[in-house]
Write a structure and sequence with these properties.
two-stranded parallel sheet; single chain
């Protein structure tokens, strides 16, 4: 049974783990756990401002530990603006477990992405907030768009069934357009941030045999960003909105640079003890969303 004294002790240990991680990374450490939702933008802004107000603890760089099933890509865009307004140095995203969908897009805004063998990103299938039976819910957009494209193709081939025609006829065109816009925004943001931040220090070719050691051109940066965005947004490639994409696939198939801390005997235990302790505490308290920094009160 939880008591105020026990909670205080647990939170103190969590803060100590975060401070130890800050020392290792030479950056402010913050942990975002939960959906990426517009309602969390104001708390996120206040959270960053509270860290910035602590002049003796505020650093130029930040390491954001991220655990999320995804959410609103429009919210991601604003979050990146807020992060970059407060941190002019290196922005690192650490994925201890998973950062799916909009969380993957958010990771691509970092200068670095850190994962271990068990971490996962996901396809950038944008989720659109809709109301169904009076309740808010997120729905993955690409599955709807793919199905509509399939039905339109069958209509052109005169193979559309009466049941399929009824489905197509009853589609909400405004909602369908919002799916298209969310898809296009996800791709454009990912490409923009890869070029501006992730590829900022990509000076020479390191993996393409015929180009090894040659300078990287702006055209090549744009082409790589476009390729990564296209592959992460290809529903036919991943077959599932919830597909877990591990570090080997990201590096070998997408050829995306990921910093692997699997075999770092100091960093990996530091990340695990911090994140596991905080998420276990959240679970016992029934908390669905948490922002944590050792320098501000727990949100």
């Amino acid at each position: 049974m939880s008591t105020p004294q026990l909670d205080e002790s647990i939170l103190r240990v969590i803060d100590e783990r975060a401070l130890a991680l800050e020392e290792q990374l030479n950056a402010n450490v913050l942990f975002y756990v939960g959906r990426i939702h517009p309602a969390y933008l104001k708390p996120f802004r206040t959270f960053l401002e509270d860290i910035a107000a602590n002049k003796t603890k505020k650093k130029d760089s930040v390491a954001i530990l991220l655990e999320t099933g995804g959410g609103s890509v429009q919210t991601v865009e604003k979050m990146v603006e807020l992060i970059r307004a407060h941190y002019t140095g290196t922005v690192t995203f650490i994925v201890p477990d998973m950062a799916m969908s909009a969380g993957t897009v958010l990771c691509m805004s970092g200068n670095r992405i850190m994962m271990d063998y068990s971490s996962s990103l996901g396809p950038i299938d944008p989720q659109v907030l809709v109301k169904k039976n009076g309740e808010e819910m997120y729905v993955p957009a690409l599955g709807y768009l793919d199905k509509v494209a399939e039905l339109i193709g069958k209509s052109a081939d005169n193979t559309l069934t009466a049941a399929e025609f009824a489905l197509l006829k009853d589609l909400d065109l405004g909602l369908l357009r919002s799916y298209e816009q969310a898809r296009d925004l996800s791709v454009e943001l990912l490409k923009k941030w890869l070029i501006e931040y992730k590829f900022k220090d990509w000076i020479v070719h390191e993996t393409t045999p015929e180009l090894l050691g040659q300078p990287v051109t702006d055209e090549q940066r744009h082409a790589r960003a476009d390729e990564i965005a296209r592959m992460l947004g290809d529903n036919r490639l991943w077959h599932s909105h919830g597909r877990f994409i591990g570090i080997n696939t990201l590096r070998d198939i997408l050829r995306l640079r990921i910093d692997d801390y699997t075999h770092d005997d100091k960093l990996r235990p530091a990340i695990r003890t911090y994140t596991d302790l905080l998420t276990d505490y959240m679970s016992r308290q029934g908390m669905k969303f948490v922002l944590h920094s050792p320098h501000v009160k727990l949100f």
